[in-house]
Every structure is written in C-alpha cells, then in structure tokens.
Amino acid sequence: MYTIWKENGEEVTKLEPQNKPMFWGYRRADGRVGVRNHVLILPTITCATQAAHQITQLVQGTVSFIHQHGCAQVGGDYEQTFRTYVGMGVNPNVYGVVVLGLGCETHQGWKVADEIAKSGKPVELVSIQDHGGTLMAIAQGAKIAARMVQEASAVMREPFDFSELIVGTECGGSDACSGLSANPAVGVVSDMIVDAGGTAILAETTELIGAEHLLANRAVDEKTAKRVYEVIQQMESRALMMGVDIRTGNPSPGNVEGGLSSLEEKSLGAANKSGSRPLQELIDYAQHPSKKGLVWMDTPGHDIEQLTGMVAGGAQVVLFTSGRGTPTGSPIAPVIKISTNTPMFEKMGDNMDLNAGTVIDGTESIHEVGQRIFDEIASVCSGKLTKSEILKQNDFGIWRIGPTF
Amino acid sequence: MEPNYKTVMMKPYDKVATALMDIPAGATVEVTCLDKTYTVTLADAIRFGHKFAVVPIAKGEDIVKYGEVIGIATRDIAAGEHVHVHNLEGKRGRGDKVGTAE
Most buried of the four, A67, A85, A111, A157, by CB within 10 Å? Predict the structure, then answer.
C-alpha cells in the first residue's frame, strides 16, 4: 500500500494508489474483521435491560439496547432469539461482551456467554440475582466493562480488503423513486462487493413475493432454488394462518397512482437491491452466511427486525434505502441511510447519509451513485460515523416466530 | 425547441421507460440507457413515475422493465403509449389464475 525508498539520502514514504478497495478494521480472535470496536452490554432478558443501560451511562465505549425478549419462549422461537443474542455478541464489531442476565429466565445468560466465548473474544457474565440486586450488578458489570473498554482502545486498525465484509441491504419507507434510484444503486454496490470477494445480504422475504422466481433462477444450486420458494410460501402461509391475504391491495392504490402496475413490478423494485450476481445460499434469520457472494436471509419486512437479523448474522455494515426517511440504526453496526429522492434528503438531513435522488434529478447515473455508496462503505468501515450512530439510534428487535408463554 | 423531458430506462432491453416528471401528450422524448437510445413521441400524457412504451408491444407479449418481466400486454401497445393497469396484467400472485402462473 505504500513504498519506502531513499532519495537524496532521505527516507521517503509514498502512498500508492490502491488496486483493491480496502478499509481499516479490527482483526478478531476468530479471524473475522470488525469495523467498530464496541464493548457490548448484552441483556439476555427484558428484566436486565435497564441495568445494562445504566452501565452504558457509566462507561464510555459501551453500547446496549432495550428489548422485551428472553423469557417464556419455547422451541424454534427460543432458538431464534438465542441465535440472535449470540450473533450480536459474536459480531466482529464487538470487542468484548458483558452478558447481563437476571438469573431465572429461560434464555440463561451463561449459555449465551458460553456460546459467544467460542469466538475467542472476552466475555463475562453478570447476573442480577447472583450479584445481589441491581446496584451490585451494575457495579460489577461496569467494572468489567471499564477494563474491556481500555483493552479495546489499545487494538489498532489494520488494512483489509472487501472480502472481509458482510454488507446487509435493506429498504424501508419506499416511494415511487425507490426502484429507480436508491435500490438499483445498492444493486450496483451489491455486485461490486461480491466481485471484491465480499458478501452482500438480501433480506425482506415479504417484499420479494412476486420476484422470487428471479432469485431462484440465480441460485447456484437446486437446493437453494427450492429454499427460495419455501421461504416465500412460509411467509405467505403465516399471513393465511392469521386469516389475512398478504397480497390484498398489492400494489396498493397509492402504488398504482404512483405508476406501479403489478405486484411483480413492485417486488422487482425491492429485488433490485440484490444486483445481478448468483444467489449462493438462503440462510435463516440471524444465521451467519457460510458462503461469500450474494446470500438471502429469511427475514420479515419490518425494518428493525430485519436489521437485527442481518447484524446478528455477522453484517458489519448495512445499506438502508428510504423514500420517506427513517432514523433507524443498530447499536453495533453502522447503517448508511440512502435517500431515494432529493427533497427528502434535504428535509431529513439529520438522518440520511447519502442521496440517490440525483438519479431522478438527472445529475448522476445509477453507477455513479453506486460508486459513491461503495466509497462511503470504505470510509464508514474505516471509522467515519453514520448519522444513526451519532444520534445513538440503538434499535434492536427480534423476529419472534412463536407466542410468549 | 422541445423542453428536455426527464425519463429513465433501467436496462437497454427494457420495453418501457419511466417519466421522471409530468410530460404532456405529443411531446417527443429521448430515452437513453447505456448504448440504446430511443426517440419516442408520446401518445398520452405521462405523469411522474408512470411508464410509456419505447417499442411497440404486441398483445400477449411480456413487458420488460428492470430487464425483467413485470406482466403481459393485454392489447397491442404502440411506442409512446402509456403502459399501466389498463393494458398491462400481472402474471404473478394471481390467485384467480392458479396453475397458469410460471
């Protein structure tokens, strides 16, 4: 990346232009690369979320999140929540984890801690019941967190290429411009990431109904193609079980008014985010991809649940397109929010990072916007803060697939 | 002189383009995507976000946008005509046509 030579008896260092796109990240014990260096206070149960929040108030460099999960869950629903907790802890954007439990909950803190510890990163368990109440647990957790934060701060960023990245893609609050500007631009970026040896996650199964055959046709094998139809069918049958037709009014009168003529046209706008590369595999919610390239994670369309699933699945950074504007962010992963139109970008500058509305304005091509997003990924992954990080938008929500008992 | 109407065509082999502003009937627009350029005179007024044909589309033919099929033509459509629910029919998610979907 740079050359050193002697010139007139003086040592000269010169930066060379990069052949490969790269970023400055943190290498973790399990080999994965983080783009942030957080100490995560991970509450495995609702009852511990307030204490976890208190620790983040005491110790700089820690993050946490409020949620309502972790008890009286069974079967596949228990597993999915467990996998999500572990995935958040294992995500390479996290240096170390203080798992904070109550003590009696179904999602036992020690089980989550043991699983995260397999990644080789520092993990410690604090239990409110075992440590003699909230204040003692906060004190204990804060002491551990303070030590971890100092250790974390001594880790230096190193250069890595994009093959180390898992990039989540998402759209929320879509408008008539979504399928024309921001989503195809993200599709260009998705291809660039795949071509650079990295991984791009497509998700939002609900919003791919009607475009599933296109993704199935791009599947690398029969098994993946079959799974595409399975997850679409499962998503639809969930709606049927509730006695509602998910397709009723889709495209909606507003969509038709805006020029969308069919369900597939609407879904294609969303599917655009996947670019054009082959679909390598279809993974479960909050599951880590086993392959590089384009992967599809089975998630609902709900912005926060989707985001949480992708980050728990190992995404270090997320691209989020919006036509209406949204504040969404993750406690541990930067979310780059991309506006589909210029007026919204100007109105919601607090929340939106990039503007793809230039495609609509005619001042930039989709490929130019794609390149701009790609360059922003390199900056953000090297430390540049996104709007949602600056505004402490620590959103977290698990896709629950069973009732609470 | 014709005003410079803004339109977009997503893929060079698309059969429709999308208006990026309200465009009156009779206007002549130039549509470009990569190496492909069409000059189309609009038969209908096309509102922002709506589509028009850039090539003639025969009844029963697939209509392509984003380089993908978004439905079929329910009647012959001339270049420059508005393409929407009145002459385009979705092929997917058609509970009323179970068994005939692809």
Answer: A85
Does the distance separating the beta carbons of A213 and B92 come in below 8 Å?
Answer: yes
Q: Which residues make Cβ contacts (< 8 Å) with residue A145, sequence separation at least 6?
A: A39, A41, A55, A58, A59, A62, A98
Regarding an ipTM greater than 0.95, the answer is: no
The reply to whether the predicted model has a pTM over 0.90 is no
- Spell out a b/e string for A179-196, using b for 16 or more CB atoms within 10 Å of the CB, else e: bbbbbbbbbbbbbbbbeb
Q: How far is CA A46 from the centre of its chain?
A: 22
CB A187 within 8 A of CB A275: yes
Q: List, for residues B39-85, the tens digit of each pLDDT value.
A: 999 999 999 889 999 999 999 999 999 888 889 999 999 999 999 99
How far off is chain B from A108, nearest CA to CA, in Å? Answer: 43
A210, A211, A256: residue with CB nearest B85: A256
Domain ranges of chain A: 38-153, 164-390
Domains of chain B: 7-94 (2.30.130.110)
**Are A307 and A394 spatial neighbours (Cβ–Cβ below 8 Å)?**
no
B19 interaction partners in chain A (CB closer than 8 Å): 259
Residue whose C-alpha is closest to residue A173's, from A350, A323, A300, A357: A323
Distance CA A79, CA A133 (A): 28
- Written as one string, the DSSP assignment of B42-72 is -SS-B-TT-EEESS-B-TTPEEEETTEEEEE
- The tally of CA atoms less than 13 A away on the side-chain side of residue A234 is 12
The C-alpha atoms of residue B84 and residue B100 are separated, in whole angstroms, by 22
Fold of the A38-153 domain: Rossmann fold (3.40.50)
